[in-house]
Amino acid sequence: MILGLDLSRSAVRVWQRNRDVFLRLWKTESWPPFLEAFITLVAFGFGMGAYVALGGEDYIVFLAPGLIAQSAFFGATFETTFGSFFRMDSQGTFDAILATPLSVEDIVVGEILWGATRGVISATALLVAVWIFGLTESPFAVGMIPVAFLAGMVFAAIGLCFTALAPSINAFNYFFSLYFTPSLFFGGVFFPLDRLPDWVRTLAWWIPMTHASNLSRSLNRGALGLDALVDLLYLLAATIAFGWIAITLMRRRLVN
């Protein structure tokens, strides 16, 4: 028991189960998130970027780290919303796992770890493309991969919270309209937030995507100051908080 939770190393078994399924379907599962981010990088970075001035920094250099964080966002979120919902509701995978010595906590932690892994797979593929285009500015850019994993755990935990509450798959329309889309456009991925009204910037500060994109951008620039530390601490705290909430909600869904 850890902090009142029945956590064990068996959560890795849930991760391994999802990994094995992914390896069987990787040809259709791997490419769509990467291709979407890659197309966005080329279209916005090289296309629209030719018309955007950011005080001496090329727009595509500004955009690339944000898109890497966005890749983690996409991968982790879709895995713990649609993916986890199917495993829970349609396939009965969670019920089957609970018939073994594994606990609800193991399921949730395993799902979060797998969601973060999916985010890292997409983020790594895009980082390679960014490196090939010569858009990395510092050796610290490689640190965007562990940041993608940490941010992926936050995104995965948030997705799993909603999954535990969703009465049907159609309910995800609310999740993607009210959380996913605002996070994407007001999370610092496509443009700096410093010119937005104060109240919008205050709201944006509470969006995990903001801290993931800021930290990725700081690593790419090699500018690791106090702001980067704040972003890192936020992601760590959010992982613990949303992970705890996800466990509580999923326990009610699966046991009660």
What do you see in this structure?
This protein is an all-alpha fold. It has helices spanning 11-29, 31-47, 59-90, 93-98, 104-132, 144-165, 172-185, 198-205, 208-221, 226-254.
Distance between the termini: 20 Å
Beta fraction: under 5%
Mean pLDDT: 87
Rg calc? 18 Å
Structural class: mainly alpha
The total tally of domains equals 1
Question: Could you give a short account of the major beta sheet?
Answer: none
Topology as H/E string? HHHHHHHHHH
Describe this protein with a few key phrases.
single chain, mainly alpha, 10 helices, 0% strand, globular, disordered N terminus
Topology diagram in text:
Blueprint: H1 11-29, H2 31-47, H3 59-90, H4 93-98, H5 104-132, H6 144-165, H7 172-185, H8 198-205, H9 208-221, H10 226-254
